[in-house]
Design goal:
The chain folds into two domains: 39 residues, YefM-like domain (YefM-like fold), CATH 3.40.1620; 50 residues, no CATH class. 65% of the residues lie in helices and 16% in strands. The chain has a three-stranded mixed beta sheet. Strand 2 and strand 3 form a beta hairpin.
C-alpha cells in the first residue's frame, strides 16, 4: 500500500520520512492541499528503478530487432562478444 503524507511532513518530520524510504525501499507520495505533489525515495530505490527501466528498454529493443531481422545469434556468439567487450573495457579502465 502506498505511503502518502502531506508535503509539510517533509519539513516537519524529515527524519521519519527518511527512515520510511530507506527501510521499505518504497517511495513516499507527498500531497499539497490534498493533491499529489511529489515523490520521495531513497537513492538505492531510484537507481534500482532506473536499472529495471533500462533493462526493460533493452529487451524491447531486442524484441523489435528480432521482429524485423532474420539474423539470429547462438549462445556462444553472444557470450564471446560480451566477453570481448568487457575485456576491452577493463583494459581501457586500467590504462
Amino acid at each position: 500500500m502506498p505511503k502518502i503524507r502531506p508535503v509539510s511532513d517533509l519539513r516537519n518530520n524529515f527524519t521519519d520520512i527518511s527512515k520510511i524510504v530507506h527501510a521499505s525501499s518504497e517511495p513516499v507520495f507527498l500531497t499539497k492541499n490534498g493533491y499529489g505533489d511529489m515523490v520521495v525515495m531513497s537513492i538505492e530505490a531510484y537507481e534500482n528503478k532506473l536499472f529495471k527501466s533500462e533493462i526493460y528498454l533493452k529487451l524491447k529493443e531486442a524484441e523489435l530487432e528480432a521482429k524485423f531481422t532474420k539474423k539470429r545469434y547462438t549462445h556462444n556468439e553472444v557470450f564471446s562478444d560480451l566477453r570481448a567487450k568487457l575485456s576491452s573495457r577493463i583494459e581501457a579502465d586500467i590504462a
